[in-house]
Amino acid sequence: MGGIQIEHVRKSYGSLEVLKDFSLDVSDGEFVVFVGPSGCGKSTMLKILAGLDAATSGRVLIGGREVTDLAPGDRDIAMVFQNYALYPHLTVARNMGFGLKMRGTPKAEIERRVADAARILGVEHLLERRPKALSGGQRQRVALGRAIVRQPAAFLMDEPLSNLDAKLRVHMRVEIGALHQRLGVTTIYVTHDQIEAMTMADRIVIMRDGAIQQVADPDTMFRRPANLFVAGFIGSPG
Ligand code: ADP
Ligand code: MG
């Protein structure tokens, strides 16, 4: 427990400054959405939290523990990407249990957690199928299942719905919201879609060119945008 703290994170690729002194305190159990135009640094910030990329300077804490220099597998997080990256040769059940198996979790415990996650996500009847026999929405549920079986301190989601068609996207937004209500796991959700941000977030972080423009709950963001960029981006009459 303890949420996520991001302290003065900077990131440059050569002379390109991608994150400029990024600081944020995410409360335990909060659902925070990072939103901003393509290239503003959303995925880079998420990769730094996941340990898939290193900050140039600054610190990050997850679940009350500094993880700045820890490997991804030691951070107690689960990521959900836009490309589900399910293993094609493994069944749904094995895909969902794979991370636990790698960590040496006993077989009975893996089976129990996979069954629980499958029930929550409504994929019990798909457990013996392989990914190619699933629809896009079903694959997305399996990817979520793979994250929740880990029972991590935090979920990091990078545009998880952007490969789905519009109708399914709306449906999955609601499902992810319900999942969050149920599990209460601290979540950072990245999107370039302002409607996703407005409908899903406890708080929204609006980014532009590697810097935070405003952090606020959706209602405040809409009624009192900090500047014209924010107003324009979220469609506020501002
Ligand atoms: P977003 O997810 O908001 O679209 P990214 O975090 O992916 O943005 O990228 C932010 C900026 O960093 C972009 O200008 C991108 O081209 C650049 N960038 C991302 N990864 C690398 C990398 N490995 N090497 C060089 N530049 C990168
Ligand atoms: Mg991105």
UniProtKB/TrEMBL annotation:
The keyword Transport applies. Keywords: ATP-binding, Nucleotide-binding, Transport. The keyword Endoplasmic reticulum does not apply. GO terms for biological process: carbohydrate transport. The chain holds residues 1 to 238 of 390 of the full protein. Belongs to the ABC transporter superfamily. It comes from the Bacteria. Residues 4-234 form the ABC transporter domain. This is Carbohydrate ABC transporter ATP-binding protein, CUT1 family. GO terms for cellular component: ATP-binding cassette (ABC) transporter complex, substrate-binding subunit-containing. It comes from Faunimonas pinastri. It is a peripheral membrane protein. GO terms for molecular function: ABC-type transporter activity; ATP binding; ATP hydrolysis activity. It is found in: Cell inner membrane.
